Amino acid sequence: MKRVQLGEFEEVVLLTVGILHGNAYGVSIKDEIEQRLNREVTVGALQITLRRLESKGFLKSKQGDSSESRRGRPKLFFEITAYGKKALEYSKESRDELWKALPKLVLKLK
Amino acid sequence: MKIANPPPFMLRFLKWFCKPEYHADIEGDLLELYDRRVEDLGKSKANFYLFIDIVLLCRPGIIRSATFHQPLTNNGMFKSYFIMGWRNLWKSKLYSTLNVLGLTFGMVCFLLIALYVYDELNFDTQHSERDRIYRVITHEKNPNNEATTVAAAGYMLAEEAPQALPEVEMTTRMQRAGRRNLIDPENPVHVQETVTLADEYFLQVFDFPLLEGDRRTALKEPNTIIITEGLAMRIFGRRDVINKNVQFDYMQTPLRITAVLKNHPQNSSFSFSSVMSMATLLNDEGFKREAQGDWASTSFTVYALLREGADPDTVSRKMTRLVHANATLEAGTTLSHSLQPIKDIHLKSAGIADGARNSNVDSIPQGNPVYVTIFSFTALFVLLIAGINYTNLTTARASSRLKEIGVRKAIGAVRGNLIRQFLVESLITTVIAFFAAMLIVALLLPAFNDFVNKKFELFTSAGLRFWAIAVALIIAIGLLSGGYAAMLLSRYNPVSLLKGLKLKTSGDFSVRKALVVLQFTISTVMIIGTIVLFMQVRFLNNTDLGFDKELMVVIDVNVARARSNFEWVKNEMSKLSAVQHVSATSRVPGEWKSIPRIKLKKEGSTGELQTAFTIAADKDFFSTYNIQLLKGRNFQSDADTSSIIINEAAAKILGITDVSDEVTIPLVARNQFFTPIYDDPTTAFGPRVVGIVKDFHFQSLRAKIEPLIITYHYNPIFPIDYYSVKIQPHDIQTTLDKLKAIMVANDEAEPFEYHFLDNQLALFYIEDQRSQTLLGWVALASVVIACLGLFGLATYSAEQRLKEIGMRKVLGANFLSIMALLSKDFLKLVLIACCIAFPIAWLGADLWLQEYAYHIDVEWWFFALAGVIATGIALITVSYQAIKAAVVNPVKILRSE
């Protein structure tokens, strides 16, 4: 598991896709992030991140049926791949390592 | 619930830039959000946010690549077009050859003529400030209301204009003072050079490229000179001659060479080989004084460099005012200036005399705008004829390709595909023809250069712009001629094509007929033009000029001793056995330098002064030139100093009917020719008329025979300048050597410059001769091209009518009737073409002939001949096919069905 580096936003998106499990498409991901993390997400930023994650192999997509609410436009559902999960785990582990290494004193100072 | 729709342009914009595979769901997301926002925030805010979202979607990962929307299959189609085009050309070799040949001929003519025309049109454009340099022209009217327009102006105008007029950045003066020997004092070789003088700004206004020397200081100092590399090679045999000395043989001081110029390009009106600094003259107090009062003379060619954006008309009016403010003009004289752009000097100087030169300096050679126009049109016409050929042959062959077109359409070719296919085909043909034409042009260029007396090289002389224009024009012709066929052939309905219906091509055929008529009209006009030119040139060269021009050696008097000691020279020359007559004159009949004019009237007459040309001659003049004396007597001895002999034209305007009338030649109108021999310059010269000669053409046949006064060689008007030697026809070179020996024995500085008079006379008409030959070739080419087309059409029509011919033969038609059947359609077209061409050609020929005071009449047989040539050639072309069709055995044709 070398050279897998997730950006902060990438990690957020990847996690959110996991949270939404099975119902992760553009708008729902956007809503989820905005609700949970209380931050603005633009369609452009989200889309480009999704595509990038997909092209790296962390996500896979599946076209859903066209739905009335979207005037016949299909939804594109995303799902985390095994590789994506590994990447998340790796990311978490590496953070934990760093946390562990952090002297307690430093935190208490706050 | 009412659905609010986002502005469609936003979604279209998204669709335009977004990668197609991402587009659908992104749009879905956006629309979902949009609908929600419309509910929450209202439509306008929703629109706004949508807009922001879409703009923020413009990111590299989402924007599609620019080339992506070009389907790759198109390249495949083009490849297919090329393959199909190539196969089609290859399949019908005869038509392809005819097409390529026709286009090649057309392009060769076009390229050669275009090289020439382009060169003529781009004279004097090598200077970087060409758009701002103007030549000052003086328009003058004397009290007798005689107008002169001279390309010259006064010294002070050039001196003061840059200070007085803010629009004038710089001026420069030039003067061609005469012809003298320019020699290397250490190693004198006597060759005559024009003495050209110019001031220090000359090299700053014009950027003549320098090999060596400093442009700003080269002409500043007195006694300095700049020379061209050509002259440097001639005098010194090398180019690095800076700071060496040369000397004009009439000057005391040697001149230091301060710069070496490159030779002039062929499209330059400047032909000087050396320029002496004007500062040299300013050393002379007399010149200085005269120059400082010289506002209104025409002794200097003045070039003005105007500032950016200055209006030449305004500036010239200001110049006129400047001159009027400073000069005192003779009462009744009017004077004004105008400015001529330097690029107009070559072609647009009709009516402007080339001033500021001594009468023995040749004037700047002029181009003939009439010929340039005619040539431009012929070049385009030839190309047009070739293009028409292509169109005709392609459309004529349409029906043999109908099945192909039908099948293509049936399996999905849209019209665009077919058009592109035909265009690619015509482009292939054009390109092949273009390369063939380039090859032929390259081969013909040396001969062509000789012929037009230029130095073209295929790629260097005309430059990139010329080739860009030429190639663009040729490709345009290729596309245009292919375009009509493409439009026509791609129009048909595939069902009827595949059912095997015959085309109703009446409309198309009449277009084709019209094109054939057009081709032959142009060709016939060119044939007639050639005939007229040929006859006129022949007329010019063969007309009895009234004097003997054959075997006449004309030797220039170039050194003072050749003039003062002429009795001895004449005597020595006449001792030679090969010399029949010798005469010394100031000018010769058929003079190529300018002949001076004087004013005179009959003694006691109260009328106006008349103008006449004047030649000074000795008593052998008439016998040498075999000029017929009508009345009176020849000059006899030096007692004839104040005798003159006049021609009939002069007798007529002066009202002299008999000899022994006296005429008065008062002070000649102001010009540089007059050098009085009397101490008092105001003394009138009152010679007596002792003889009248028959009119002879002492000028080119373009001009009428003007009044002419022949004075005795020792006279107050003009000294002798030539020896005319009538020699025997055998062993001419030896005679010339002997003549030279005599001249050199007289003065060792003698350069021995001579001309044969008949050659000089032919030079008057060299342009006409050249045009005649050129037009002849072009006419030939255009006829050949038109005939190639006709041949193709005839072949095709014979093929189409094979069955009909077979039937007719079976039913008893004979050979002749079949011939007539096949030929008459085409002959009719050619005859119609002739009918259109005749009046056009007649008008053109008449207009052109008006340029000559003496010219042939346009005769009916010119037209008849041209008509016979055009029809004959067309008939021969068509009949080959007609005969082939007529002799074929009908069984062979009819059996197969």
TrEMBL record, chain A:
SUPFAM superfamilies: Winged helix' DNA-binding domain. InterPro entries: Tscrpt_reg_PadR_N, WH-like_DNA-bd_sf, WH_DNA-bd_sf. Pfam families: PadR (PF03551). Residues 22-89 form the Transcription regulator PadR N-terminal domain. It comes from the Bacteria. This is Helix-turn-helix transcriptional regulator.
TrEMBL record, chain B:
Residues 96-321 form the MacB-like periplasmic core domain. Residues 377-494, 779-887 form the ABC3 transporter permease C-terminal domain. The keyword Cell membrane applies. One of its GO terms (molecular function) is transmembrane transporter activity. It is found in: Cell membrane. Keywords: Cell membrane, Membrane, Transmembrane, Transmembrane helix. Coiled coil: none annotated. The keyword Ribosomal protein does not apply. It is a multi-pass membrane protein. The chain crosses the membrane at residues 94-118, 370-393, 422-446, 466-493, 514-535, 774-798, 826-845, 860-883. Pfam families: FtsX (PF02687), MacB_PCD (PF12704). It comes from the Bacteria. InterPro entries: ABC3_permease_C (IPR003838), MacB_PCD (IPR025857), Macrolide_Exporter_MacB (IPR050250), Permease_put_prefix (IPR047699). This is ABC transporter permease. It comes from Chryseosolibacter histidini.
